[in-house]
Design a protein that fits this description.
three-stranded antiparallel β-sheet, about 5% strand, globular
Length: about 280
């Protein structure tokens, strides 16, 4: 990967690797900076605040790039300016675009049941079931190893999730039974889910995304469903069943409660069924 980058971008790559960023973050940050260098015909060290703003303006207005993609550029540029050029970021401080207030797509329990019952392939079914029942991210499913399944304590050990953080989440009894059947039939060697003809390697992102899309299509679901929809649905259904939001935050691996609180807007809680705590007092 290093050979495809300029001298300046390689410095960024080294800095990010030294700071223990995930390989995916390193690749995406460095790729975005290399593309910017190529587009502006300038070295990264020659690109100033005005250059960057004009470039990002083009990405927003002409290419309709997402806020997360724009923020990725700003974050990568900040690392280079602050930690490699040793310049004061406060004097530059490029304001990030306002976040879009979009609520995630969530499936009902009935829709989830249809989706999870669609796959005939037991490995495909197990991947969907563990993603929903434990609230896992796509990469967390792909990197999962058999040793992470703790059947005695009925929990799943998520190793090096987003932000390189470990956490525990719940293991459903039904999920465990499906995982055992999958293990018995497919005998994975390293990862819990491996391609049929590539033992010892994880299933690819594209494969899992295709499995989810195909299952949604066969289940007759018209919503725009992705792998993350299962995670969103997990959190929303837990909230609706009365699970404390702090516990859900822990299961999801969110750093702040603000990330988890979005699910409060998605629940089907009926305000008319809520009574004042005064009703339980003897007055």
């Amino acid at each position: 990967m290093k050979n495809q980058f300029s001298e300046d971008v390689q410095k960024l790559l080294f800095e990010m690797e030294y700071r223990n960023y995930s390989p995916r973050s390193v690749e995406s940050y460095c790729n975005s900076m290399q593309i910017m260098e190529n587009q502006l015909f300038k070295r990264l060290s020659e690109i100033n605040e005005v250059d960057l703003k004009r470039y990002l303006h083009g990405l927003i207005t002409q290419k309709k790039c997402s806020n997360s993609y724009i923020n990725q550029h700003i974050s990568a540029y900040k690392i280079f300016v602050q930690d490699i050029l040793k310049q004061d970021w406060e004097s530059i401080r490029i304001i990030r675009p306002r976040r879009e207030q979009k609520l995630p797509v969530v499936l009902s329990v009935g829709e989830l049941e249809r989706l999870l019952n669609t796959p005939q392939n037991i490995k495909h079914k197990a991947m969907l079931v563990i993603m929903y029942s434990a609230g896992l991210r796509l990469q967390e499913v792909l990197q999962m190893k058999p040793s992470s399944i703790d059947s005695e304590r009925m929990r799943i050990h998520v190793l090096q999730g987003k932000g390189k953080k470990d956490r525990y989440t719940i293991l459903s009894q039904k999920c465990l039974e499906i995982l055992r059947l999958h293990f018995k039939l497919n005998r994975p060697k390293v990862y819990l889910f491996e391609p049929q003809h590539k033992p010892g390697e994880p299933v690819s992102d594209r494969t899992l995304q295709h499995i989810v899309k195909k299952a949604a299509e066969k289940a007759g679901l018209k919503k725009n469903i992705s792998c993350h929809t299962l995670r969103h649905s997990f959190a929303t259904h837990l909230l609706e069943s009365g699970v404390n939001i702090k516990l859900i935050q822990h299961f999801l691996g969110h750093t702040t409660l603000k990330s988890t609180s979005v699910y409060l807007h998605l629940t089907n809680a009926d305000p008319e069924r809520v009574s004042s705590p005064l009703e339980n007092m003897n007055i």
